[in-house]
Write a structure and sequence with these properties.
about 325 residues; alpha+beta; Phosphoribosyl-aminoimidazole Synthetase, Chain A, domain 2; 60s Ribosomal Protein L30, Chain: A; 5-stranded mixed β-sheet; 11 helices
């Protein structure tokens, strides 16, 4: 498959199309809202809302699970509902505090399986489930989980600068989860998983990472596109530098949602220290590109380059031309 063909297929992937759904609330709500008690504004559109709170930030996020995933694999969906929220908090340099859930079931066996998965994840990552909403007489099956966390220093989506290196970090010690686009690297001791995620707040507090996001359902390209869209910049991505498992085709990997996967914008002076921090934990990390001022995402390989997206012409999560960069 040529690079332009790969780009075209990825542009039309389900995960990428679903990211455009964000345009609806983005068109209706303010891009920043006044902070509580006269604090700094809260910028809307990041992995978590970061609310100024004392000497740090209260982080708040929510994730709804895919209905098809909940129906086909309710225990895995329960586990992932906690995991993806934790990843959102860690991606912003925070530490999770607690989660609550909203669970709907028709009276089937799905609810106990979802709760079992949530309980397993809560135990694994040390994040208590402190409340929620349960309806076992619903006409449908659904699950959403919300999280709170705290950060002393933030990694945001709004602060990538032209000239930054793009660094991807991912745990390759895992497997694809059946036919789903999920790379599962959670079959490991709980202590190791917690210490792996703890690298992110350590990097934030050391001031080594300028901006970043966790790799979500839009895959690597969707995540990077949201990052540069929020920061009002562009990027070149070298697809052959992307760390990936030997047995997973590039197209599938670029659409995958890894259980531990992040993209960062890093000042070049800090790149080696960031790479070393992940390598020390046995995690794969590489410089995969560079941020520029173009407002375009361009893919590069040995065969040349191809334009993936021009944000000046078409937004991903925003209908209007422009950025949420404050």
């Amino acid at each position: 498959m040529t690079l332009p063909e790969l780009a075209a297929r990825l542009r039309d992937s389900v995960g990428m199309v679903q990211k455009r759904d964000i345009q609806l609330p983005a068109d209706r709500f303010a891009w920043s809202v006044p902070g509580p008690w006269g604090e700094a504004p809260v910028r809307v559109g990041d992995d978590c809302a970061a609310i100024p709170d004392g000497d740090g930030y209260l982080l708040v996020a929510i994730e709804g699970m895919s209905p098809a995933f909940v129906k086909s694999s309710p225990r895995a969906a329960g586990f992932c509902s906690v995991l993806v929220n934790a990843s959102d908090v860690y991606s912003m340099g925070g530490r999770p505090l607690a989660v609550v859930d909203a669970l709907f079931d028709t009276g089937s066996d799905a609810a106990p399986a979802m709760l079992e998965g949530m309980q397993h994840a809560a135990s694994t990552f040390g994040i208590p489930v402190v409340g929620g909403h349960t309806n076992l007489r619903s006409p449908y099956i659904a699950l959403a989980v919300a999280i709170v966390g705290r950060a002393r220093a933030l990694i945001t989506s709004f602060d990538a600068h032209a000239g930054d290196d793009l660094v991807m970090a991912v745990d390759l010690r895992g497997k694809m989860l059946g036919d789903n686009p999920f790379w599962d690297a959670t079959d490991a001791p709980a202590a190791r998983l917690r210490e792996d995620f703890a690298v992110l707040p350590a990097l934030a507090e050391a001031g080594l990472v300028r901006a970043g996001k966790d790799i979500s359902m839009g895959g690597l390209l969707g995540t990077l596109l949201m990052l540069i869209e929020s920061s009002g910049v562009g990027a070149d991505l070298e697809v052959e530098r992307v760390p990936r498992p030997a047995n997973v085709p590039l197209e599938r990997w670029l659409m995958a949602f890894p259980s531990f996967g992040f993209m960062f914008a890093v000042g070049p002076a800090n790149t080696e220290r960031v790479l070393a921090a992940f390598a020390a934990r046995g995690l794969a990390a590489a410089r995969v590109g560079v941020v520029d001022a173009s407002r375009k995402l361009t893919l590069w390989s040995r065969e040349g380059s191809t334009l993936f997206w021009d944000l000046a012409r078409e937004g991903l999560t925003q209908k209007r031309s422009g950025s949420r960069h404050a």
